[in-house]
Design goal:
alpha+beta
């Protein structure tokens, strides 16, 4: 289990094999909320304010070491939105993601 510091929320770490998020100070693993669309969402604090962060984006940002732009999409290779391990995530663009969807639907 390798924990990497999140590039924006530096008080939090993301575990690469599972995508779990924990507080760096307390080492407490956070419990995600499952959104209506199937994504895991975490409440992270920064500068005394709450921020709602999707787990797959946090895992991808920790993996790359930088904040993703709004134009970048995080694709789940296995199609399961709840699986946020770094091996299952691929950072792509919206057009590349749509091309991938179209190829799969034509099979």
């Amino acid at each position: 289990m390798a924990w990497k510091t999140h590039p924006t929320y530096t008080n939090y770490e993301v575990e690469s094999s599972s995508g779990k998020i924990r507080n760096k100070t307390t080492k407490r693993v956070l419990k995600p909320k499952i959104r209506w669309d199937g994504y895991k969402e975490y409440t992270l604090m920064k500068d005394g304010k709450k921020h709602y962060v999707k787990g797959h984006r946090a895992a991808a940002e920790a993996k790359t070491g930088k904040k993703l732009s709004s134009k970048q999409i995080v694709h789940h290779k296995n199609g399961n939105r709840a699986t946020n391990s770094s091996k299952n995530l691929n950072v792509t663009t919206r057009s590349e993601n749509n091309k991938s969807k179209n190829r799969k639907s034509k099979r």
